[in-house]
Amino acid sequence: MRDFVFENKTKIYFGKDQMCHLHEEVARFGKRVLMVYGGGSIKKIGLYDKIMTELQKGGATVFELPGVEPNPRHTTVNKGAAICKLEGIDVLLAVGGGSTIDATKGIAAAAKYEGDDVWDLVTHKATVTETLPIITVLTLAATGSEMDGGCVISNVDTNEKYGYFAPDNNPDVSFLDPTNTFTVSPYQTASGSADIMSHIFDVAYFSKNQSMDMLLRIQEEVLRTVVKYAPVAVEKGDDYEARANLMWASSWALNSFLYDGYFQATVCHSMEHELSAFYDITHGHGLAILTPRWLRYILNEETAPAIHRFGINVMGVDLGLTMMEGANAAIDALETFFFETLGLKSRLSDLGIDDKNFALMAKKACGPEGVLHGFTDLTPADVEKIYRMCL
């Protein structure tokens, strides 16, 4: 393994009674706040009023940007940045799940950009050297955006969806109250759980790079946590222990602690970004459909040991099986978990997706180099075959 530096600036308030600290944390950065949120569910569950009461304690002036989409649009980010520039916003407050937080990260960077289109930053036509401070109140365990520096922004005009890392764009403070996720639907809970697992698979676990054994064990424990608690949360949405474990698993799956000096291409995420860019499907559901087919496609003598290890240590696969048998059983178990235990639809055709865009999507997923590097390297032809396996 390589030498590495680990730093994560995000301060976490975890638990039921931590919102009382919101006004003091906001006050550290200023009084002019832009609150960013999605479709209005935060008002239905009373969270909006609770937050406004806290902000008023600190004398904050609050501006709002509602309506952030599930796959946040660059046009929405541009609206938020324009508000920041016009109103002299001091700090951003994201209230929602990963899409809301991602949009807010884009706003934080675009607000410091002299131009008027965040897509210039996302496509690296321009750069910024600073961003606005960010505070988040999480309402969905899935993306880990509450404790990392990345965001994913969509341009529906061009069917493009790209990750973007702005300088110093980790949230400064995140409030993680599991009770704010009690009303998340079984479907979104299942999709979010698949997203958590995919972050570990993509970023660290299924890799050519030799990882520190201690970190592999932690990765497996986070995966085991999802396997244990996701079905509980799907069945009983207000189970605090289940929601708390999923929420903390989400944060640690992607806050860079598990990387140990390597950063690899996120293969399934790259393939899924094309799916949700073209079809605007739920990101975690797309990952659930893709991941077992990807593992099945790349299974060979070199990849089997890691897949077998996952089966034994996470999914409870029979120790008596041969390496290849155990690897296949691991993939079978993952499919059963996603599609039967969590109840997610198993095929792209179930979501109204056909193969007409697969060739273009595969080419875009592989980028300008024409190869998607990862556990095994994939060409556009490989990616197209995996898409077809998902039909």
Unreliable segments of 5+ consecutive residues? none
Question: Which bin fits the share of residues in helices?
Answer: 40-55%
**Total of helices:** 15
DSSP, total strands: 8
Can you give the mean pLDDT? 95
Order of helices and strands: EHEHHEHEHHEEEEHHHHHHHHH
* Structural class by helix and strand composition: alpha/beta
Q: Evaluate the radius of gyration.
A: 20 Å
- Strand arrangement, major sheet: 1-8-5-4-2-3
Distance between the termini: 38 Å
- Gross geometry: globular
Strand fraction equals 5-15%
The major sheet is characterized as: 6 strands, parallel
Structural features:
six-stranded parallel beta sheet, 8 strands, 15 helices, alpha/beta, single chain, 391 residues
Structure description:
This protein has 15 helices and eight strands. By secondary structure, it is an alpha/beta fold. Strands 1-8-5-4-2-3 form a six-stranded parallel sheet, with helices on both faces. A two-stranded antiparallel ribbon has the order 6-7. β6 and β7 form a beta hairpin. The longest helix is centred in the middle third of the chain and has 23 residues, at 213-235. The chain is globular, with a radius of gyration of 20 Å. The chain starts with 10 loop residues before the first strand and ends with a helix. 50% of the residues are buried. The model has no long low-confidence stretch (mean pLDDT 95).
